[in-house]
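Let us practice reading a record.
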Amino acid sequence: MHVILEALAKDMEFTGDTERDMRLFLELHGCLQTADHCFDVAQEAQRIAHLYGADPQAALLSGYLHDISAVIPNHERIAVSRSLGLEVLPEEETFPMIIHQKLSRVIAEELFGIRDVNVLSAIECHTTLKSGASLMDKILFVADKLAWDQPGAPPYREAMLNQLDVSLDDAAFAYIHHLWQQREQLKVVHPWLKAAYDDLAHQFKATGSL
């Protein structure tokens, strides 16, 4: 195991109870708010999984661990990513917060022992989504946006909830379209987000719903 991961797991005894281990791991690193957010996202992901016939346990796991890399300070994320052999895109170097999704996948796999590729993929793209996104990718993406962790209600929430009654793709697109309309004001437009937007927009144009 990489020395960086060993250091993160110092004083941590993993039990295999992912909810318990997630909370303890984040609390040991002073990330109490993140632990609460991860729990909320997991519950929302499980709810959506039931709606769309996906594996509710996989949805829970992906939610519990999607932000587990919060233990790595933002200003260290690029250096840590490179040390772990992750590809760092120019947009991630400009805005390091985004690369936390890739780091969370590594921690979920290496420290929490997650082997389900659907769970790992969902964790890896939960902020941006990506082209060819799977059902679990979309479930976690939508759950993360609905389980808002800031004061007040997000401006896209009502639209997402309304579209979730139509389809998971519609709900995901409601959020991405919201971002796309203000892309000039964003710090960066991640290429995975653009690819997801293009995918969904093409799909809706083909069906005449856009």
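A brief commentary: The domain at 3-206 is CATH 1.10.3210.10 (Hypothetical protein af1432).
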